[in-house]
Amino acid sequence: MLVIDFEIQRFNRETDSEHRWERYQVSTHAGMTVLEALHQIQEQQDASLSWRYSCRMGICGSCAMIINGRPGLACNTQVRDLNAPIVRLQPLSNFPVVKDLVPDLTPMFEKHSSLNTYLVRQDAPRTEALEGELAQSPEELMRYLQFSHCTKCGACMAACPTVAIDSDFLGPMPLAAAHRYNVDSRDEGFEARKHKASALHGAFSCHYAAECSSVCPKGVDPARAIQLMKRDLILDLLRLRRKKTPASFTPSPSAAKPRENIPQAPKFTVKS
Amino acid sequence: MKKEATRLGVYGWLSSGKRGIEGYLFLLHRITGIALLAFLSLHVFVSSFRLFGEHAWAWAMAMTHSALIELLEYAVFVAFVFHAFNGVRLIAIELGFVVGRPAEPVFPYKGSIAKQRPLTITIMALAGVFIVLGGLELLRLT
Amino acid sequence: MQSRYWFWMLLSALVILVLLGWHMAIMHLEGFLGHMVSISPHPLGWGDVIARGRNGFVAIAYVLLLGAGLFHGVFGLRTILAEYWPRKGAEKVINTSCWVAGIILFAVGTYTTLTFHFIPPAP
């Protein structure tokens, strides 16, 4: 049993004008995460403590916060791995604070949707009517799969030095998401995204400090995505960007003939 | 537009997370860039003294050749060497050459940061060689 | 649009790399280089200044270097300022001041170089 001090930044936007620090003592055991410590504080010491969490296993991105000066997920940061007698918790930097460790991520989501971060196709009515499956090879998938692992936790936005000074900068998460769609072989939206991406406060305000990739809890490497997007934008400027035909629909499986001698499925035993 | 209470501002350049070397290189690139621009402005002004003849030039040279100013000129040289070499590194990175192909992340994650490290270290070593050479010149040891 | 400016930053950077590299070498590395090529040990002496000024290639190189250097530096400063003050009104002020400062410095430097090239003052 190791007792560790937790210093947590407290703030309530409805009643407070500035934040304050509060200290709690937590008995930790091996393998205990920061998220478990927060639960223990709330259950045993201070029921008013607020933070976001959901899956508690590093897949939803809700519990992102600043832990001893570094953005990370509370659920996959073990208290003893921090090797510190005091653990300082703060809400993510560069966002307004709702309460305690809960940031208001609306600015990030607004920037994200401003970049048309969805599959844009010329034959949108056919895609939306789910006429069929769009063909994509494993190699084409690998070009964007890494960037699709983003959970929108906001840690990269807190770590980025440009986001720190420029509230209009799109930021690593929206830009990496835009690149994820640009290189998706099923997408035709590069032209729609490139003006916003290459405008002032767009991709060219990234100067490869690579703090985003350093703190990303899912290994998305947004810095890589943004540099690859800059390369695409420069090639497009020089009219050297290769235009690929977008993925087409695969033939419907019902058009195929079933093999012979396949046994029938058994009848339902439960009335639906 | 009102700044959020948590927006770090310029402080974010120093402390938005426990930095890797790339974050510090970004900061140094900015600082050396501003320093070089400031020096250039001064340099254009001082160099224009030659229009007024040898005496004016000799006066300007006497004014700008104390030990402190020679040290500051060496600092400008160091700033240029760093900014130039880091700039070449940034050109390679921002054109997507050394950031590596997208790949499935396997913990512990080693992405573009690991891929560009060898280039970064090589370039900083080369910059170091030139800085030392310039230092030897400053101390009149070449 | 920024992609175009970034590309000009790249081109001006390459120009500066070559020209300023040469300028720094003759000014700050003359002892070291003196072992390999014949180079003046006193680049700031009046005789050397006159000799460089009269040389047409050097004059052109200086004007190119000044232009590229000022574009690169002033645009870089403008980028930093625009990131720190993202408001629309601030953008206009930043752009105008950068243009003005850049033009003044370029005018002074080019005037110095070209006047000195064509009419060096009597010693």
Describe the model:
The complex is a heterotrimer of chains A (272), B (142) and C (123). With 272 residues, chain A is α+β, with helices and mostly antiparallel strands. A five-stranded mixed β-sheet of chain A has the order 2-1-5-3-4. Chain A has a two-stranded antiparallel sheet with strand order 6-7. Chain A folds into two domains: 2-103, Ubiquitin-like (UB roll) (Roll); 106-237, Alpha-helical ferredoxin (Fumarate Reductase Iron-sulfur Protein, Chain B, domain 2, Orthogonal Bundle), CATH 1.10.1060. The longest helix of chain A is centred in the last third of the chain and has 16 residues, at 222-237. Helices cover 30% and strands 13% of the residues of chain A. With 142 residues, chain B is an all-alpha fold. Chain B has a single domain, classed as Fumarate reductase/succinate dehydrogenase, transmembrane subunit (3 helical TM bundles of succinate and fumarate reductases), CATH 1.20.1300. Chain B contains five helices and no strands. Chain B is elongated. The model of chain B has no long low-confidence stretch (mean pLDDT 86). Chain C has 123 residues and is mainly alpha-helical. Chain C has five helices and no strands. Chain C has a single domain, classed as Fumarate reductase/succinate dehydrogenase, transmembrane subunit (3 helical TM bundles of succinate and fumarate reductases), CATH 1.20.1300.10. Classes of the chains: A alpha+beta (272), B mainly alpha (142), C mainly alpha (123). Chains A and B meet through helix 4, helix 6, helix 9 and helix 10 of A and helix 1, helix 2 and helix 4 of B.
